[in-house]
Amino acid sequence: MDPCPFVRVTVGNLALKIPVASKPARSVVHPSSSPCFCKIKLNILNLPPQNAVVPCLPPDTQTLDNPATAATFHLSKSDLDRLASKSIFASRLCLKISIYTGRRGTTCGVNSGRLLGRVSVPLDLAGTESKPSVFHNGWVSVGKGPNKGGSAAQTQFHLNVKAEPDPRFVFQFDGEPECSPQVFQIRGNIRQPVFTCKFSFRASADRTQRSRSLQSEQGSSRSWLSSFGSERERPGKERKGWSITVHDLSGSPVAAASMVTPFVASPGSDRVSRSNPGSWLILRPGDNTWKPWGRLEAWRERGGADGLGYRFELIPDTSGAGIVLAESTISLNKGGKFVLDLGSGSSNRLGPNSPGCSPRGSGDFGYGLWPYSMYRGFVMSAKVEGEGRCSKPAVEVSVQHVNCTEDAAAFVALAAAVDLSMDACRLFSQRLRKELCQQSDLVG
After folding, report:
1. What does pTM read for this prediction?
2. What pLDDT is attached to residue 197?
3. Which CATH superfamily is domain 7-165 in?
């Protein structure tokens, strides 16, 4: 399998040194009490801006110890081609950073932070598909000169801006997962079939057999399926027993996603709630049986716009405690992306965009303390459509996380589970398409 070229632009090592005013003044920023943040954007690409907290350092600080990544932008081959095809754009591409003091948020549509200054870093991405490039690493002055409080020193802002190759395998479902589609690998205009998917309903006998096979993997005292509540019989409306198996072109099963906790309407409502989510096991073959690799929980968020809430954790081979890698929301109306991105700070720890319940700050990566230390940086993304739309998930997987066919297939199965969760979390007053309903189902 040949990957597609991608480039990752990262911004990190952020810090501020704000001079102390010689005379007290209400307008002066006092770094000990004023939080600071910045907004980071690429000026001519249609990528959403990102926010990051900026730590304030004492003015006499000589060394910087803040290697965390603050923002990451992922550029595809089409983005790079668009920049290269128009030299007027290529020469103007730059990273723009606006630095504020005060807390993030808006009041009556007006930003509540006070602008300290702006920084612009020109970017020339030519050649970054094959080799890394550093565009800035160090301090830069911001603001309009001497401080109004009487200090002649300017505010100093530290940042590191670099671009690195980030090749990825790109896969596209040729149909909706419940229609048992083929999965193609995409590279430019080339579409090559690599997997087939088989959607089915698990019968009770299948659940028992699978539970026993997994039980043999973990010992007689533990069953993965029963530990995750798959065999609980719950009253009321529910969607259960969905399963999708990914096969390679020889027909061998190489990954699977199995709904192990039914998606059940909360009492007195028509929706799957966060307090009682449905869940999937993502399975990989090993030793003539299925081994659990990851667990996906999903529910329907309340709010102004309904969203699919999700939580994904890896299941270590040596422990029953899962490692949470992602917890976020996808719009049920517009669709969106499921993303596993663990940041890529130079210290090999989880970056600031990692989930709050991940194993942060324990020397995780590189020291063997975290069971899945091979997962770092961008891992995968899956783009899915909203409710009522034909969804053919597009999956991107970082090359560094694919060592064999089974690796890629596990991420494809996870993408299928995310897409099927969009249907599983539909209001129970709405009818599902026939492929998702058994004859005995009573739907809407």
Report:
1. 0.79
2. 97
3. C2 domain (2.60.40.150)
